[in-house]
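Structural prep section.
Before we set up the soaks we want a predicted structure of the protein with magnesium ion in place, mainly to decide which crystallisation condition to try first. Input record follows.
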Amino acid sequence: MQVSDEVAIDIRNMNKWYGNFHVLRDIDLTVHRGERIVIAGPSGSGKSTLIRCINRLEEHQSGHIVVDGIELTNDIKNIDKVRSEVGMVFQHFNLFPHLTVLENCTLAPIWVRKVPRKQAEATAMKFLEKVKIPEQAGKYPGQLSGGQQQRVAIARSLCMQPKIMLFDEPTSALDPEMIKEVLDTMIELAEEGMTMLCVTHEMGFAQAVANRVIFMDQGQIVEQNEPREFFNNPKSERTKLFLSQIL
Ligand code: ADP
Ligand code: MG
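Run finished without errors. Recording the C-alpha cells verbatim:
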C-alpha cells in the first residue's frame, strides 16, 4: 500500500456555512495519492459536509479546494472534471431501483463517458466480479441484500475509473452480518492503491487499513495521526472522550 508524494486533494483554510451556521472551520487537509484516510468524529461534526465539498455536492464559501490539480470554483467544467475523477459511496446505496444491477453500472459510462455499450457492459462485469456478485447482474436492486446493494454501488463507482473514492458511512445502514463483505471490498480497493477517504465508525477497519485517522468535532479537524498513535495515544480531551465512548 504505497503512498506517493503526489497530492490528490489539497484543502486550504476552507470554511463553509449553512446560513448562519459555521459548519466547517478553517479546514486544512492534504491527501496524497494512495492514502487511505478514515474520518471519525461525533454525529454533526461536519464529516459528511467535508467529503461532500470535495466533489462539490456542497459549496464552500472561503478558502481553496483543489482536487487532482483542479480548483473547485463555480466553473461547471471544473466541477464536472472533478466529479468524473471522484467516486462516492453513500450510506443509503442510492441505486436506481428501476434499472438492473448491470444497467446501474453502465448508465454513466454510456451516457456521460460515451463508452460503447458492449465495452461498458464488459467493464461493469469485471467490477461486479471484483465485488463478488457477477451472478446478480440481471437483478433489480430491490432483489438484493443491503450488503450486495452496497457492493453494486461500489462497482458502479469503479466503472467510471475514479482516481479517488469517497465513502460516507458505507456500512452504517447494514445488518451486522453484511458489514464485513462491504469492508472486505474496501480493503481490497485499498490494497490496490486507491486513494480513499472514508467516514466510518468501523474502528477495526481504521486500524487495519487507514494510514491516517482524522478526528473532527464541531466543524474542525481536532487531531490526526497514524492509527496506532491515534488510538493508543490520543492527544486532545475531545478525542479521548470520543474514543472512550466508541471503543
Ligand atoms: P456528520 O456527517 O459529522 O454527522 P454533517 O456534515 O452531516 O455531520 O452535519 C454537520 C452539521 O451541519 C450538523 O449540525 C447538521 O445538522 C448541519 N447540516 C447538515 N446539512 C445541512 C443543511 N443542508 N442545511 C443546514 N444544516 C445542515
Ligand atoms: Mg454524516
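Observations: The pocket of adenosine-5'-diphosphate (ligand 1) is lined by residues 18, 21, 23, 41, 43-49 (CB under 6 Å).
Flagged for discussion at group meeting.
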